[in-house]
Amino acid sequence: MINEFVSLVNNILWGDGQVLIIMLLACGIWFTVKLGGVQLRHFGHMFSLLKGSNTSTKDGISSFQALCTSLSARVGTGNLAGVAVAISLGGAGAIFWMWMIALLGMATGFAESVLGQLYKVRDENGEFRGGPAYYIKQGLNKTWLAVAFSLCLFFGYGFVFSAVQANTITDALNNAYSFPTEYVGLAIIALAALIVVGGLKSIARFAEFVVPFMGIGYVLVALAITFINISELPAMLLDIVKSAFGLQEAGAGALGAAIKNGIQRGLYSNEAGSGSVPHAAASAVPNPNHPVSQGYIQMLGVFLDTLVLCTSTAFIILLAGGSSSDQMEGIRLTQDAMSSHLGEGGTDFVAAAISLFAFTSVVANYAYGESNLHMFKLDNKIGRAVYTIGYLGMIYWGAQAALPQVWAMADMALGLMTVINIIAIVWMTPTIVSISKDYFKKKDSGANMEYKAGDCEIQGKSEDGIWD
C-alpha cells in the first residue's frame, strides 16, 4: 500500500499530471522577469560577494560556510547518480533541460534565500534559524501551511534523503570492492553521528573544509577527460541539443522523457525552489548586512551545483558513449563511464567521490531537519535525541533498500515540499521585489548596504527585532 501511495503521488507531481514541472518552469520565469534577470544581469556580483564572506559570529555561521553547507546538501547523489539516472531514462537531451531548470532556478533560489534571511529567528541558544516554515508563518501568517511544510521537510531531509545518499554510497562501494551493505551502513551512521552531534556550527565547519576540496578535485578530473576527448566534444554537444528537442529518430517519446528526467533530476540536485536552501541562508551572518546578499550567495550555489558539477558528470558519461537504456541506471553507470576513461582506477575514483559527495549531503540534511525542531518547540535535548535516532535509523534502512524504491520516496518528499514552497514564495513576491529593489538601489548609488526594518515594505514582520 505504501508503494502504491508513493507511486500515485509521484504520478500526479512528476508523471501524467506534471504539476511540478509546470510549477518550477513558471516560478523560474516569474522571478526571472520580476527581478529583471538578476541571475544574468548580476552574474559577476554574486562572485564578488565571496570576498570577505568568511566572517562568522556567535549568532550564526559565515556566508561562505552557509554556501558550503548548502552545497554539501546539494552536491551528492544527484550530481553523480542522479545525472546517470537522467541520461539512462531521458537520453542526452535530459542534460539540456537540466541546464535550463538550473538557469531559471537561480532566480528561484535567489528569491527563497532572501526570504530565509529576512524572516530568520534566534533559537534558545541565540543562534539564527529560518526557512520556509518561518517565512510562511511570519510573512503570510499561515501557521497550518508552515507546519505542513515542516512535516514534509522532516520526512524528506530528516529521513528519506539521507537514505538515498546512503544507498548510493553502499552501492558504489559494493560494486567497487564488494563491501557488505549492512557494514557500510553502520560505518556511515558512526561517522555522521560524530559530526552532527555538534550541531549546525560543527556541520558548517566540516562543509567549509570538505566541499571546496571535493568539488575542485572532481571538476579538474572532468576537465582532463574532456580535453583528452576534445575531438568528440562538438558531436556530443550537438547530440544534447538534438535530443533535447526530439530531433532524433526516437521522436516525441524521447522528447518527453528528456524534459521530465532533466527537470526532475536537476531539481533534485540543485534544490532550487524546494525550500531547503533557505535554512542555510537564514543561519548565515550576511556580508553586507542585507538579506539580499544571501540571495546572491545561494544563487551561486545553484550555478556551481548544476551548471558546473552536474555538467562534469554528464560529459564524463556521454564522452564514454553513455546513452539511454531500458533500466534505471544509478551510480554504476557513472562508474562504468569513468572506468572507460581512466581504466580500473575509474571505479575507485567514483566510489571515493560519491562516498564523499553523498556523505556531506547526509550530514547537511540533518541540519535542515534540526532547524525545524524550533517550529514544534522540540528544540531541546529530548527533541534532538528522538530526531537523531530516527535520522540515523533511516540511514541504515537506505543502505540496504532497493534503488527505485528509495528514489521514489525521495521524489515524493521533494515534490510535496516544493509545491508548498513555490506557492509561498510566489505569494510573497511583493516582499521579494521590494527588498531586492532596496539592495539594487543602494548598490548602484554606493550607499551603505546595511538593511534595517522600515527600509522597504514587507509582508508580516520578522521576529526578535533582528533587523531593527
From TrEMBL:
Would you tell me the protein name for this molecule?
A: Amino acid carrier family protein
Per its UniProt record, what Gene3D superfamilies does this chain match? Amino acid/polyamine transporter I (1.20.1740.10)
InterPro entries of this UniProt entry? Na/Ala_symport (IPR001463)
The highest taxon in the source lineage is: Bacteria
| Gene Ontology molecular function | amino acid:sodium symporter activity
Q: Which PANTHER family match?
A: AGSS FAMILY TRANSPORTER, SODIUM-ALANINE, AMINO-ACID CARRIER PROTEIN ALST
Query: Topology versus the membrane, per the UniProt entry?
Result: Multi-pass membrane protein
Family assignment from sequence similarity? Belongs to the alanine or glycine:cation symporter (AGCS) (TC 2.A.25) family.
Q: According to its UniProt record, where is this protein mainly located? A: membrane
Membrane-spanning intervals of the chain: 12-33, 80-102, 144-164, 184-203, 209-230, 300-320, 349-368, 389-407, 413-433
Please provide, in alphabetical order, the Gene Ontology terms of the cellular component aspect for this entry: plasma membrane
Which Pfam families does the protein's record reference? Na_Ala_symp (PF01235)
Alphabetically sorted, this entry's keywords are: Cell inner membrane, Cell membrane, Membrane, Symport, Transmembrane, Transmembrane helix, Transport
> Where does it reside?
Cell inner membrane; Cell membrane
